[in-house]
Amino acid sequence: MDAPEDPRSDGLLAGLTGAGAVGTFAEALGLRFTQVSPDVVTATWEAGPSLHQPFGIVHGGVHCTVVETLGSIASALWFGERGHVVGVSNQTDFYRAVSEGPLVSTATPLHRGRSQQVWVVETRDEQDRLVARGQLRTQNLPSTT
Prior knowledge:
This protein is an alpha+beta fold. The chain has one domain: Thiol Ester Dehydrase, Chain A (Roll), CATH 3.10.129.10. Strand 5 (116-125) and strand 6 (130-142) form a beta hairpin. The chain has three helices and six strands, in the order ααββαββββ.
């Protein structure tokens, strides 16, 4: 985690992104968080052969994982100590095939309500072209204690 911005993020992020917390799957993608707050989460990552599908481009599941990871972290930060969140729907569209190079993914809220949230995650290449866009819906699960 490079740059938590919100003071509330330190404790939550320790639970979400500490060693083994997010899991080696997201870590294997090489996500480097550059902005982390309840209003926006941004990460950079590198497209390369380890993330390719058989035709030499980044696998669609990688893009879905980025959407799920950034959207879940953003949802959890916004919901905060009120409880936990779980993803209930991840829908991702692919606009531009990429094989190599730096990518930037950013999660922003579309809806943050009492019981659910919807986050849009856009991934752009180094020319700022849209590569993929996903939408993650999370369910807010209030604490009972």
